[in-house]
């Protein structure tokens, strides 16, 4: 198997962590098949998983499907053959990946789906956002800002991906009775396609005033298309994102994107590895682990939202450092006591 992506093989360390693995304890390995690493959202997810694996001493291999269903199937087959105990999967196509996921289950491998569900195979755990609710939240906010009857277009994600299907359903639940959806087209969660598709939409529908996008990358492409058409994004055409990547946050700050939806991509990766370790240790886990969303607009940022997020990361880092210090102090005390007893 060609591994051009992240790979972690770490043991020992972090004995003070409740989920950590001892240096002499062999409990197995985890494989993580991710839909693509050509999207900041999934790069952050992989980074979260990698960092948590290092922290907990989990043997983790991450493979990139490159948005190719056939490659993802082949990758998972290779992971099964390698003898993993847990498979974490972020499907490129939720239905197409089901047969190979079923093979993993039949082989006795625990399966965790992240961000996107698997349609046609019963996984042990799903970790992610309720994308229907998230889509409804975004669509309702958009309709409130634009006002009833406004003409909009929707940019859909990858056909077959559960996140795209569910998010689009949420959008429609919120806006179909309030806004005039003149067209809804896929741009495959891709920035370049978002640009091209939006250019075509604007040519056919020059009077639209809003674009509701299922992810940041397509929204950023739409911003470029609106600018190329001689219009002002954020004024002539309001554009929304989803995922809260760095470029999207910058666009919200600049006023070219109305809002983006943050859904804890790093948390998804971290939680997947934590859950995989719990499974390998024989613990029961929840069938569904929900990830909360936050709608990030200019007001949120102006009121310190970005700073709060940064502070949260700092607090988490500080807590981890404190735990390491306490563990080291405990080991020192134990060693001192042992030496004293030996001397006596």
Number of helices: 11
CATH architecture of the largest domain: 3-Layer(aba) Sandwich
Estimate the strand proportion: 15-25%
What is the ordering of alpha helices and beta strands?
EEHEHEHEEHEHEHEHEHEHEEHH
Q: Residue-averaged pLDDT, rounded?
A: 87
Name the shape in a single word. Answer: elongated
Helicity range? 40-55%
Instruction: Characterize the main sheet.
Output: 7 strands, mixed
Please tell me the total number of domains.
3
Radius of gyration: 23 Å
CA-CA gap between termini = 58 Å
Which CATH C-level class of the largest domain is it? Answer: Alpha Beta
Structural class: alpha/beta
Examine the coordinates and then state which fold CATH places here, giving the name of the CATH topology of the largest domain: Rossmann fold
Q: Spell out the CATH superfamily of the largest domain.
A: Response regulator
**What is the topology, as strand order, of the major beta sheet?**
1-3-2-4-5-6-12
Oligomer: single chain
Total DSSP E strands: 13
Residue stretches low in confidence (pLDDT < 50, at least 5 long) are 1-24, 309-336, 338-344
Question: Could you describe the 3D structure shown?
Answer:
By secondary structure, this protein is an alpha/beta fold. The chain has three domains: 7-129 and 265-292, Response regulator (Rossmann fold, 3-Layer(aba) Sandwich); 131-262, Rossmann fold; 310-344. The protein has helices at residues 40-56, 69-82, 98-106, 131-146, 162-175, 191-204, 216-228, 246-254, 265-280, 298-302, 305-343, and strands at 7-8, 29-34, 59-64, 86-89, 110-114, 125-128, 151-156, 180-186, 210-213, 238-240, 259-262, 288-290, 294-297. The strands form three sheets. Strands 1-3-2-4-5-6-12 form a seven-stranded mixed sheet, sandwiched between helices. The protein has a four-stranded parallel sheet with strand order 8-7-9-10, sandwiched between helices. Strands 11-13 form a two-stranded antiparallel sheet. The longest helix is centred in the last third of the chain and has 39 residues, at 305-343. The protein is elongated, with a radius of gyration of 23 Å. The termini are far apart.
């Amino acid at each position: 198997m060609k591994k051009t992506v992240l790979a972690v093989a770490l043991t020992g360390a972090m004995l003070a962590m409740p989920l950590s693995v001892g240096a002499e304890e062999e409990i197995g390995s985890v494989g993580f098949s991710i839909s693509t690493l050509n999207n900041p959202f999934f790069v952050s997810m992989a980074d979260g998983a990698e960092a948590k694996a290092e922290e907990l001493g989990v043997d983790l291999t991450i493979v990139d499907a490159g948005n190719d269903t056939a490659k993802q199937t082949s990758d998972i087959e290779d992971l099964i053959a390698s003898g993993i105990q847990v498979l974490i999967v972020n499907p490129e196509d939720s239905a197409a990946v089901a047969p190979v996921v079923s093979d993993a289950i039949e082989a006795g491998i625990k399966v965790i789906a992240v961000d996107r569900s698997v349609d046609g195979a019963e996984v042990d755990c799903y970790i992610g956002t309720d994308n229907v609710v998230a889509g409804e939240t975004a669509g309702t906010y958009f309709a409130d800002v634009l006002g009833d009857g406004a003409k909009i277009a929707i940019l859909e994600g990858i056909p077959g991906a559960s996140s795209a299907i569910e998010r689009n359903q949420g959008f429609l639940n919120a806006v179909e009775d309030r806004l005039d959806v003149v067209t809804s087209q896929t741009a495959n969660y891709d920035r370049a396609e978002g640009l091209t598709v939006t250019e075509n939409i604007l040519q056919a529908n020059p009077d639209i005033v809003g674009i509701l996008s299922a992810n940041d990358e397509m929204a950023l492409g739409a911003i470029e298309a609106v600018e190329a058409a001689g219009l002002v994004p954020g004024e002539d055409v309001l554009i929304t994102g989803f995922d809260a990547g760095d470029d999207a946050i910058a666009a919200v700050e600049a006023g070219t994107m109305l809002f983006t939806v943050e859904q804890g991509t790093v948390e998804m990766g971290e939680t997947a590895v934590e859950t995989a370790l719990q499974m390998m240790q024989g613990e029961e886990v929840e069938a569904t682990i929900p990830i909360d969303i936050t709608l990030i607009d200019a007001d949120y940022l102006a009121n310190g939202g970005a700073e709060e997020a940064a502070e949260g990361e700092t607090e988490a880092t500080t807590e981890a450092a404190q735990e390491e210090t306490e563990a080291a102090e405990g080991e020192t005390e134990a060693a001192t006591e042992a030496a004293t007893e030996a001397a006596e």
